[in-house]
Specification:
By secondary structure, this protein is of the alpha/beta class. It has helices spanning about 15-25, 40-55, 65-80, 105-135, 160-180, 195-200, 205-210, 220-230, and strands spanning about 5, 30-35, 55-60, 85-90, 140-145, 185-190, 240. The protein is globular. It binds NADP nicotinamide-adenine-dinucleotide phosphate. The site of NADP nicotinamide-adenine-dinucleotide phosphate has 29 residues, from helix 1, strand 2 and helix 6.
Length: about 250
Amino acid sequence: MAKTAIITGGSRGIGEAMSLKLGELGYNLVINYRSESSKALSDNIAEKVKKEYGVDALVVKADVSKYEDCESLVKAAVDKFGDKIDVLVNNAGITNNSNWIDIKREQYENVINTNLMSFLHMTHLILPYMVNHCDKDNQCCIVNTSSIGGLIGVINQADYCASKAGIIGLTRALALEFAGKGIRVNAIAPGMIMTDMLRGVNQDELKALAGTIPQGFIGDVSDIAGALGYILTAPYLTGQVISPNGGIVQQ
Ligand code: NAP
């Protein structure tokens, strides 16, 4: 029987590459997005996985920074695919790029609510389903997108770094709590990956930053989708942070 995966922020960038990877691996897919402008992108991904990989896909609009929207997202997934959810990929994320004097309270609350609280909400809502059907021989997986900002400090990213470090704490704690129940919890901490998030920053600064990457180039979304594929097919891996980052951070 086909397995089911939910991905938050699955419409663009890293999320799009991960959605396609989940389809390639044979998962029926629930693709979440938030902005109206991303509906068509999400629909395209759904069509693509149906056509290329023969899986089913559902597109769900939800602002995962809000608990009620997460509830609706999980309900839509269960209504469509049943209550055996096998994989949750928490990927939705935003950044402010602001110094800590000028930043407004609403801005940093939005980053924490989107990047960290959504991961708490979604795991809180999904784990009751997972504990009901996962075991050692039928594993479930939660994969959380963190960042190198969760491993080191980054200037003008205090709220982002706090959220991404929080994700690592959540990952490690849940991994221990659910290790004996056949549920693996891991994080991916990307370095600089070319998506809209990076396209939005000053391109001269970006070029200078890229020069500090030991491998000398900015990563591609396929590097992160590849890490997801590895995690999903690695039955003895839990509580880990995998960081494709060109060597800029060593753990
Ligand atoms: P992106 O291209 O800007 O995509 C962000 C995704 O998150 C979109 O799918 C967006 O949905 C979704 N999203 C944002 N807020 C949401 C909300 N409240 N509810 C539901 N979905 C929401 O960024 P990206 O670079 O692919 O980033 C994906 C993840 O990787 C993020 O967690 C980011 O922090 C992390 N990351 C990125 C980099 C990098 O260099 N790019 C490095 C380290 C970590 P809409 O399309 O509807 O807006």
